[in-house]
User: Fold Redox-sensing transcriptional repressor Rex from Flavimobilis rhizosphaerae.
Amino acid sequence: MSERSLPPPTLERLPVYVRVLDDLARHGETTASSSRVAELAGVAPAQVRKDLSRLGTYGTRGVGYDVADLAAHVRRALRLSDAHRVIVVGAGHLGQAVARYGGLRARGFEVVALTDVDPAVVGRSVDGVLVRHEDDLAEVVASTGATLAVLAVPPGAAQGTLDALAAAGVVSVLSFVPGRLTVPDGMAVRVVDVAAELQILSFYASSP
Amino acid sequence: MSERSLPPPTLERLPVYVRVLDDLARHGETTASSSRVAELAGVAPAQVRKDLSRLGTYGTRGVGYDVADLAAHVRRALRLSDAHRVIVVGAGHLGQAVARYGGLRARGFEVVALTDVDPAVVGRSVDGVLVRHEDDLAEVVASTGATLAVLAVPPGAAQGTLDALAAAGVVSVLSFVPGRLTVPDGMAVRVVDVAAELQILSFYASSP
Assistant:
């Protein structure tokens, strides 16, 4: 199976493996069994072996996987070898939280610009990153080389902004906006819906 | 199958169905086929029928589902009949973004308190909600009746705060903190890891 056609559940576990392998390396461990990776990742060992074999990687019997090799391999599968440039659209509390989020750079992402429509915010700097006007989106994307965007605008503005991002050449978007969006052709969108997450948790929070 | 043991993938689709049914009701539609619900939810029709049959609901052949009845039924399955009280731990940009997020109340959640450890923030009000000191967590949970919490603290503080929430009687937590947490017995934790979401998207953003 080519990496281009990794099944989404496998794809969604790869960042977990990267984190686990980086943790192991930090603790000086150079090899790890699939069971060890599985335990730290909270996944069944057979699933780990299956996921990694899809990437063309196999452990050595009795030894396991080489931690550094495997981490590099999973990173390549996720195309994390180069830092990805991220633009954050919407510089309210959420957009600023994403831009200031310390863990991004260590995990392969650089926030290269924020945009907003509020004149009180445009021109300011958030953690060293300039807030540009959203009208200049196409120019900002072109000049920064951003390929990923985080969508943190009000719901009413989301579809128009998504379309503008597609027109500007952004191909992947992480949206924090609830509700339905029509995804432009050729674009990948993942949605984090805080209320939906809480609704799922409320199932566990209540006695039936 | 009892609702207490709904499979997680079914459970995760229920908030989507609630949103779709509310949308249909707002547009004056009183009945809907499983195909229509499926289309709006982005799920296969057979999956919709299977999910809803797990809740003990079945459409009428040739008519479909009663939209209002079905919405009420799915809400009950999610135990959304009463407003759930939510405490937001960490009143930085992310915590404030969650507290100000307009969509929560409409979807059954009320943010009743924020907490923080920063004296510059404690005592302030965010969108009408007081920021209390995190040392008073147990008292805040007891006095507000919060059962859900949103964790928006720095990574180094996350485990201690999670344990304190468990000790205070909070049973479900939505965490925005990356990295591994040991989940206290009896607690349900869902993690939104922004960097992991971006890593998954980077797979789509790069040419192989």
In short: The first strand of chain B starts at residue 31 and ends at 32. The mean pLDDT of chain B is 88. Chain B touches chain A through 61 residues (CB under 8 Å). The domain at 84-197 of chain B is CATH 3.40.50.720 (Rossmann fold).
